[in-house]
Design goal:
Layout: H1 13-41, H2 45-49, H3 62-70, H4 73-104, H5 110-120, H6 125-138, H7 145-169, H8 174-181, H9 186-197, H10 199-214, H11 218-223, H12 232-235, H13 247-279
Helix pairs in contact: 1-13, 3-13, 4-7, 4-10, 5-7, 7-10, 7-13, 8-9, 10-13
Subcellular location: Cell membrane
Family: Belongs to the binding-protein-dependent transport system permease family. MalFG subfamily.
Transmembrane segments: 12-39, 76-102, 114-136, 148-168, 204-226, 247-268
C-alpha cells in the first residue's frame, strides 16, 4: 500500500526549516542578478566599474534617458516588438492547427511527423544557423524581419505542437462528435469548440513563442546587418565592444527589455500553470 504524502501540519520542524531555507535560497539566487542589474542601471559608469561594491551610488535615471534618446534603442525595441509579435501569431496558428490534427486525425506519416518534430529539438543553434542562413540568402531575406520570424518559428513550432497536441488530447472527443451532429465541419469544430477550451494551452504557447523571439541573439546577429534592422538582442551588444564597454547603458537597456516580457507573463499567468500541467498529461 502506497504511503500518503505528509500534509503541512504533519511536517516536522526540522523538515519545515530545511524546506523554507531551500526555497528562500532559491528565490535569492533567482532574484539577485535581476536586482543587481536594476541597481546598477541607476549608477553612473564610474560606480559600476569601481572595485568598491555599493548598492546605491548617486542613483539617477540618466542612464535610461541616454539609452532612449541618444542611442538606437527605440528602433531596436520596435523591431523586437514586431518580430516577437509576428512570431507569436504565426507560431500559435501553426502549432494549434498542427497539434489539433495530430490529436484528432489519423493519416499516413503521422508517427514519423511527430518524431520529426521531436528530433528537430535536439539540434543546437550552432548547427542550424548555417543551413538556415543559406536558405535565407537564397530567398533574398537576409537583413529582413521576415527571416527572423521564419527562423524563430522553426525553433518554437515543433515544441509547441507537441505541447498543444498533449493538451488537445485532454479535451473529450465527445465534443467533436456532438459538434459534427450539429453540422459543424472539422475546422468549425476546431475554431468554435476546441479552441475556447484550450485557452490555457494557447496562453503557454503564446508566452513561449514570444520569449523565443524576444531575447534571442544568435539568429539576430547572423541575419541582420544594418543598424535599423537590429533587434534588442543584437543591438545591445553594441554597448559592450571589446574596448570601453558601456555597462551603464547595457544595464539600463537590460531592465527595459524585461518590461514587455513581464507584461506578457502578467496577462498570461493565470493560464500558464493549467496549460503546462494539462499539456503534459493525456486524458
Amino acid at each position: 500500500m502506497s504511503r500518503r504524502p505528509r500534509g503541512r501540519g504533519q511536517r516536522s520542524v526540522g523538515a519545515s526549516i530545511a524546506l523554507h531555507a531551500t526555497l528562500i535560497t532559491a528565490t535569492v539566487i533567482a532574484l539577485f542578478p535581476v536586482v543587481w542589474v536594476f541597481l546598477s542601471s541607476l549608477k553612473p559608469r564610474s560606480a559600476i566599474q569601481s572595485s568598491r561594491i555599493t548598492l546605491f551610488d548617486q542613483p539617477s535615471l540618466d542612464n535610461y534617458r541616454r539609452v532612449l534618446l541618444e542611442t538606437s534603442f527605440p528602433t531596436w525595441f520596435l523591431n523586437s516588438i514586431v518580430v516577437a509579435g509576428l512570431t507569436m501569431v504565426f507560431g500559435l496558428a501553426m502549432s494549434a492547427t498542427a497539434g489539433y490534427a495530430l490529436s484528432r486525425f489519423n493519416f499516413p506519416g503521422k508517427r514519423g511527423l511527430m518524431w520529426l518534430f521531436l528530433v528537430t529539438q535536439m539540434f543546437p543553434v550552432a548547427i542550424l544557423i548555417v543551413p538556415i542562413y543559406t536558405i535565407m540568402a537564397n530567398l533574398g531575406l537576409i537583413d529582413t524581419k521576415l527571416s527572423l520570424v521564419i527562423a524563430y518559428c522553426s525553433v518554437a513550432v515543433p515544441f509547441c505542437t507537441w505541447m498543444l497536441r498533449g493538451y488537445f488530447d485532454t479535451i473529450p472527443r465527445d465534443l467533436d462528435e456532438a459538434a459534427a451532429l450539429d453540422g459543424l465541419g472539422p475546422f468549425a469544430t476546431f475554431w468554435h469548440v476546441v479552441l475556447p477550451l484550450a485557452r490555457p494551452g494557447l496562453a503557454v504557447t503564446a508566452f513561449y513563442t514570444f520569449l523565443t523571439a524576444w531575447g534571442e541573439v544568435a539568429y539576430a546577429i547572423a541575419f541582420t546587418l544594418s543598424d535599423s534592422k537590429l533587434t534588442l538582442g543584437a543591438g545591445l551588444q553594441q554597448f559592450v565592444p571589446q574596448y570601453n564597454p558601456q555597462w551603464d547603458l547595457l544595464t539600463a537597456g537590460a531592465v527595459l527589455i524585461m518590461v514587455p516580457a513581464s507584461l506578457v507573463f502578467y496577462f498570461a499567468q493565470k493560464h500558464l500553470v493549467a496549460g503546462l500541467t494539462a499539456g503534459g498529461t493525456k486524458g
